[in-house]
């Protein structure tokens, strides 16, 4: 019984964990680094990975910078859809719950920033790649996992179809024209 409850609430617990970690990390960045200030624990590491405080009005990784309102609406819709769909997932689909929990936490984490600050705090800077945050990474991992699950399920369905025996022939239909 406890396992079933944990399984069914994984989406919510994981989403809450992502929101917590995301918001704590963003708070630390906002309170410890000035806007556009960077920090790296080791000087030799700075060209490859650093913490850089920026404010992002667009989507993950700095895309579509002037579409903040659109992404606020999208985050609300995605969160509602995930919350609804999470209740429909049958037992035994833990990976699906994991993917949705990551996406839910990321969407709400960035939504909180948009609603409170009007922008999203980004801070993870790796090489010359775009700057992102915990929520962005969580959404990206959740989407990648969901895509992988869909690919695996699609291949499994094709294999089941190919391995299925042909349907029985009704003797009454033999010899009749269609």
What is the element string, with H for helices and E for strands? HEEHHEH
Q: How can the largest sheet be summarized?
A: 3 strands, antiparallel
Strand order of the largest sheet: 1-2-3
Please state the structural category: mainly alpha
Low-confidence stretches: none
**Count of DSSP-assigned helices:** 4
* Whole-number mean pLDDT: 87
Question: How far is the first residue's CA from the last residue's CA?
Answer: 54 Å
The percent range for strand residues is 5-15%
Number of domain modules = 1
Query: Which range best describes the helical content: under 10%, 10-25%, 25-40%, 40-55%, 55-70% or over 70%?
Result: 55-70%
Give the number of DSSP strands: 3
Protein architecture, described:
With 178 residues, the chain is mainly alpha-helical. It has one domain (2-40, 47-155). The chain is 58% helix and 10% strand. It has four helices and three strands; from the N terminus they run αββααβα. It has a three-stranded antiparallel beta sheet. Helix 1 (2-32) packs parallel to helix 3 (94-117). The longest helix is centred in the N-terminal third of the chain and has 31 residues, at 2-32. The radius of gyration is 23 Å and the shape is elongated. The mean pLDDT is 87.
State the main characteristics.
single chain
Question: How would you concisely characterize the structure shown here?
Answer:
With 178 residues, the protein is mainly alpha-helical. The chain has a 3-stranded antiparallel β-sheet with strand order 1-2-3.
